[in-house]
């Protein structure tokens, strides 16, 4: 399963990249807004991320009409060959997706909240769909249930669109995504760090290191 980091913060991206876990990045206008608080321009933020990561970087259009989305998509794509264009799941978005598919520009269809929307995006050639599971949980639904449905649809019809589970809030979302065979997950940095943690790991490590000091008082490995 591919792991993407869901942020536009370059420091978080660099740190996470050092762990060797990051296959790509997803951003959205709200994440860009947070990252631009220090005064950095959108273009500077996007270009830096595209250079830092050796994998797809999703950058989102901020238009509502198909022709404006396509115009913005072409500009975003010109920033780097690994740019994937996030298009919202609307009728105008579907129209834009069709045009971008003809131009061989990869699309990540965003703001997917049910499996029918995901079916339409795949039909129009999206490279990725982003179902927002956490936001469904927020309104009392089981967000992960739609991942299973989307996987079934794509298997039934042989769609190659990758299911990129988004709006992830905790490690259980990641576990369920992996068990359902999701192609990718996009995760905030604080949740990525939690994935590696377990209190019994910390307890076990502390005990080993304490015992080792009884062998080697300065804690070194005397070889
Ligand atoms: C996906 O690509 C979005 O950037 C993101 O996962 C949204 O998550 P949120 O619901 O936590 O804002």
TrEMBL record:
Pfam families: TAL_FSA. Keywords: Cytoplasm, Schiff base. CDD domains: Transaldolase_FSA (cd00956). Pathway: Carbohydrate degradation; pentose phosphate pathway; D-glyceraldehyde 3-phosphate and beta-D-fructose 6-phosphate from D-ribose 5-phosphate and D-xylulose 5-phosphate (non-oxidative stage): step 2/3. InterPro entries: Aldolase_TIM, TAL/FSA, Transaldolase_3B/F6P_aldolase, Transaldolase_AS, TSA/FSA_arc/bac. This is Probable transaldolase. One of its GO terms (molecular function) is aldehyde-lyase activity. It catalyses: D-sedoheptulose 7-phosphate + D-glyceraldehyde 3-phosphate = D-erythrose 4-phosphate + beta-D-fructose 6-phosphate. Its EC number is 2.2.1.2. Belongs to the transaldolase family. Type 3B subfamily. It is found in: Cytoplasm. Transaldolase is important for the balance of metabolites in the pentose-phosphate pathway. Gene3D superfamilies: Aldolase class I (3.20.20.70). GO terms for cellular component: cytoplasm. PANTHER family: FRUCTOSE-6-PHOSPHATE ALDOLASE 1-RELATED, TRANSALDOLASE. PROSITE patterns: TRANSALDOLASE_1, TRANSALDOLASE_2. One of its GO terms (biological process) is carbohydrate metabolic process.
């Amino acid at each position: 399963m591919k792991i993407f980091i869901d942020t536009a913060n370059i420091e978080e991206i660099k740190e996470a990249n050092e762990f060797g876990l990051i296959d790509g990045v997803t951003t959205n206008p709200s994440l860009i807004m947070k990252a631009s608080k220090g005064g950095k321009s959108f273009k500077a933020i996007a270009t830096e991320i595209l250079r830092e990561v050796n994998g797809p970087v999703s950058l989102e259009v901020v238009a509502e009409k198909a022709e404006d989305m396509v115009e913005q998509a072409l500009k975003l794509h010109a920033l780097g060959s690994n740019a994937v264009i996030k298009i919202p799941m609307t009728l105008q978005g579907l129209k834009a997706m069709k045009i971008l598919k003809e131009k061989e520009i990869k699309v990540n269809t965003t703001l997917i909240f049910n499996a029918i929307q995901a079916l339409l995006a795949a039909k129009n050639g999206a490279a990725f769909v982003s179902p927002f599971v956490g936001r469904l949980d927020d309104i009392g639904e089981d967000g992960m249930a739609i991942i299973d449905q989307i996987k079934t649809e794509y298997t039934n019809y042989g769609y190659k669109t990758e299911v990129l589970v988004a709006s992830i809030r905790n490690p259980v979302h990641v576990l369920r995504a992996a068990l359902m065979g999701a192609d990718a997950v996009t995760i905030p940095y604080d949740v990525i760090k939690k994935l590696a943690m377990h209190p019994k790991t910390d307890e076990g490590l502390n005990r080993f290191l304490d015992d080792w000091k009884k062998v080697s008082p300065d804690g070194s490995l005397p070889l």
